[in-house]
Design brief:
Elements lengths: L4 H17 L6 H8 L3 H7 L3 H27 L3 H11 L1 H12 L4 H25 L6 H18 L7 H20 L5
Helix pairs in contact: 1-2, 1-4, 1-6, 4-5, 4-7, 5-9, 6-7, 7-8, 8-9
């Protein structure tokens, strides 16, 4: 197990760069410059860029998603605005998840994105169902939630990442989906 300060720095900077720029623009040279470490140091900890990305995805689940779910358990009383208040505390994690979403054509990112959404769905869906007044079986509501989440990630802008903007985006999405939900067309 590698636990040095350099290893942690590579992961932290790598997580930020992946979240901001996506996997295609994740440059070992740029990471090394930002970490103020030699590129050769990178290869002490990682086989290649793909190995780093694999570890970043692991970090996302072991740390960020776990903390997010803990916050949901402790602070999600009402779907709106609580979910988006909590989301604002995890902006970088949401940026990371958006990169997974945007790169879903790669099976590794698709699996990671779906896993990330599924991990919090059991905590969010009951609040979503009540708040949105959806009178359908839980599995149907979960399917609707996944559609809302996909649509949300396709439209969210991180330069406008505030509780008010996130709530407004939710209402826009629900206005669009309402006829489909009423006719039970989302499954």
């Amino acid at each position: 197990m590698k636990s040095s300060e350099s290893y942690t720095k590579w992961l932290e900077v790598g997580y930020y760069f992946f979240s901001e720029h996506g996997p295609q623009n994740l440059s070992i040279k740029a990471l090394a410059e930002h970490c103020e470490l030699p590129r050769t140091n990178f290869y002490y900890y990682f086989d290649n860029k793909e190995d780093l990305i694999d570890k970043l995805i692991g970090l996302h689940f072991e740390t960020i998603a776990e903390l997010f779910n803990t916050e949901l358990e402790n602070r999600l009383d009402s779907f709106i605005p609580d979910l988006y208040i909590i989301a604002c505390d995890f902006k970088l994690g949401f940026q990371f998840a958006k990169q997974l979403f945007l790169n879903r054509d790669n099976p590794m990112y698709d699996v990671a994105y779906k896993k990330a959404i599924a991990l919090s769905s059991d905590l969010i869906v009951p609040k979503f169902k009540v708040f949105s007044n959806i009178d359908l079986p839980d599995e149907s509501v979960k399917s609707i939630w996944f559609t809302v989440t996909d649509t949300w990630f396709s439209r969210v802008k991180f330069d406008e990442f505030s509780v008010d903007c996130l709530c407004e985006l939710y209402y826009e999405i629900m206005d669009t989906l309402a006829p489909l939900i009423q006719n039970n067309k989302i499954n």
